[in-house]
Amino acid sequence: MFNNFLRENKISAAILTIIRLYLGYSWLTAGFHKLTGGFDASGFLKGATANPVKGPDGTMVYAWYVDFLKHFALPNIDVFNTIVPWGETLIGLGLLLGCLTTAAIVFGLVMNFSFFLAGTVSHNPTDIFLGFIILTAGYNAGKYGLDYWVAPFINKTVRKNKAKVTA
Fold it and tell me: pLDDT by residue (tens digit) across 73-91?
């Protein structure tokens, strides 16, 4: 019942638009400040590996993630220094414009969980909660945005190409 409300109701589409705009603004401003302010993730990643999230018994909770940061992210810091600010900016634009909303929120959730696994709480739990609402709503979250035109175009194009492949 609640899923139907989120996915099909015009009132929920309006509420989802407000949530989407809030998240979009948050992502866009975070990304824009990183793009214009000389962002370097190495300090954050070194801090996350030096002081990982620990359980009540003092052992690392996400040892696999710390290994990922040590052995992949830090050696490739230039890549992360590029994809984090651009990713945040593009997620923000997608959500603000309501264009490819589902894809934008999926990438946003991946980034929120990445920050969360590294030990940053901040507003990530709220963003994750709101992000899952947007994700659950699907197309209805971008109905009052560019997805109103983009989603039908993509569906029509994909169906046309599938028909050519099967013929």
Answer: 999 999 999 999 999 999 9
